[in-house]
Amino acid sequence: MNIRNICIIAHVDHGKTTLVDHLLRQSGTFSERAALEDRAMDSMDLERERGITIQAKNAAIQYKENRINIVDTPGHSDFGGEVERILGMVDGAVLLVDAAEGPLPQTRFVLKKALERGQRVILCVNKVDRPECRDGIRTAEVVNQTFDLFIDLGATEEQADFPIVYACAKAGWCTTDTEEIPALISGEKKGSLQPLFDLVVDKIAPPVPGPEKEFQLMVANLGWSDFVGRLAIGRIMSGALSVGQKAYRIGTDENGNEVREGFNVTKLFRYTGMLQTEVKTLEMGDVGVIGGTENFQIGDTVGGEETTKAMERIEVNKPTLAMVFSVNTSPFSGRDGDALQSRKLRERLLREVRQNVAVKFEETGQADQFRVLGRGELQFAILIEQMRREGSEFMVGRPEVLIKGKGAEREEPLEKATLDLPEEFASDVTRMFQERKGLLMSYEAVGTQSGPNGSQNRIRLEFEVPTRGLLGMRTKYLTATKGEGLFSSQSIGYTPWKGEMLHRLNGALISDRDGFATEYALMNLDDRGQMFIAPGDEVYEGMIIGQYNKENDLNVNPVREKKLTNVRASGSDHYVALKGVREMTLERCIEWLEQDEWIEVSPKNIRMRKKSLKVNSRSISRRIED
Prior knowledge:
The chain is α+β, with helices and mostly antiparallel strands. It folds into five domains: 3-203, Rossmann fold, CATH 3.40.50; 216-303, Elongation Factor Tu (Ef-tu), domain 3 (Beta Barrel); 321-401, Elongation Factor G (Translational Gtpase), domain 3 (Alpha-Beta Plaits, 2-Layer Sandwich), CATH 3.30.70; 414-496, Alpha-Beta Plaits, CATH 3.30.70; 508-617, CATH 2.40.50.250. Helix content is 22%, strand content 33%. The protein is built from 15 helices and 35 strands. The strands form six sheets. Strands 18, 19, 20, 21, 22, 23, 28, 30, 32, 33, 34 and 35 form a twelve-stranded mixed beta sheet that branches. Strands 12-11-17-8-9-16-13-14 form an eight-stranded antiparallel beta sheet, with no helix packed on it. Strands 2-3-1-4-5-6-7 form a seven-stranded mixed beta sheet, with helices on both faces. Strand 13 (267-272) and strand 14 (275-279) form a beta hairpin. Helix 10 (377-389) packs across helix 15 (586-592). The longest helix is centred in the first third of the chain and has 16 residues, at 137-152. It is globular, with a radius of gyration of 27 Å.
């Protein structure tokens, strides 16, 4: 068959989406006059704003007589569920590794899943034009590191004998010959991605028919059309399906019992570039799109006969964090957007669970609060931001790790944190992670790199640290390394409970009354801590307005006005600049939050508050986590 199904595996910011852009351009799928914007596969607004891939997406290109279906996978470990559910759609992978940074944790995570499925992998060493890689020494080291990674993950002899291409995705070229790299970098020789195309066709096996004779498709993704409704996206494992034919959705109900639902196929599509092109028939091996029922769910099997055997549902690694979503009970509820009632909030969260197999939903003992289980802080931040942009108002609590066992038998999630940073910050960073119960497992020099202050020696540290200890660490780490450090982590299982740990060293400054913050009041509070609000901002009793310099909380009056008198001191009334207001983004709020606090989320504002608003109903003392 002239079909190849591949996915692109890479860590964050290793050039995966840029490579796919050039594959689309150079394949001839688009005419020369067709406009193709940069990072075309990052279709979500949040993906473009943050520069990361969040959702797995499909594209198809035509190379000579071959049709190549490409799945772009997320590179951040928080979205590992997206990766796991689409690997069943492909027969091979292109592993993209930065020529300077080498294989990082998310590379390991996705590669392990691909090797377990017996898939053949092509190694693409990207960014060989980086200054520290031009002598070829670091590039050769990265290839050796990748080989060691294959062996460590249990690759077969055939899988470990992987083909290699050296690429500069930004410039749109690659080569299998290292001696050609200097000429390609300098522009003496014009290159393209043809060597990679040829390797995909030659080394990746075509689809193999499944054991069933009738049509069988596993729903790995969902789409939507204003004209057709919900769409099921997946790879055809066997048989063929035509428009108008009766098909069957084999899924499960809320109790896990099998459900079979018949429907008539109204529309069929397959991919041309990134667009869905309508077709009359879908055949085995291709990646197709089916319309006909609104009940499709990820993990369902679509069969051509009522007796079609259901395929094994998609299983992903279990969540490690939980976050409580609540109806907004703040005094400002309903001002900026739609204050979700408990029924609507529940429906919205259940809709997310149906579309994302890595997210779970649980009821709590309170009617207006629900628990969402997920992989990491970034995954929660993306969900919250999506709901916020839909115009919703709600509250969220601090993420909590999911504990196994009770008492002395308690176990907590453990992660492997990989840090790439300038050597001068190593001691401070090591101390930070050891305070969070981290254990240093590896210290490796990775060469020199040019920076704003000249060339600097860089090192790579690996820690085993409880997930609880990583909450709130990303911002502190970036501050400690002056923004020059790279941070990534991967869940590696559970470990015995590591004991007490203080999440946040500083307490909170809390407004003790309603009103508008005045410059006079904030100036007098300036030496007490760091402010989160500016003069003129409206506050309410129980709202957090800043970070206190000491460990306990402090109730303050941010709305106090200066008493009017006839006496004026020369120069005393002019504007005096505050130390500065710390901008608290959603991610910073999630990292900063404590157990007795809420984040109030609305389309226009993000505020923090105490769960108990009244001054006389809460304590100002804080306790260590146990």
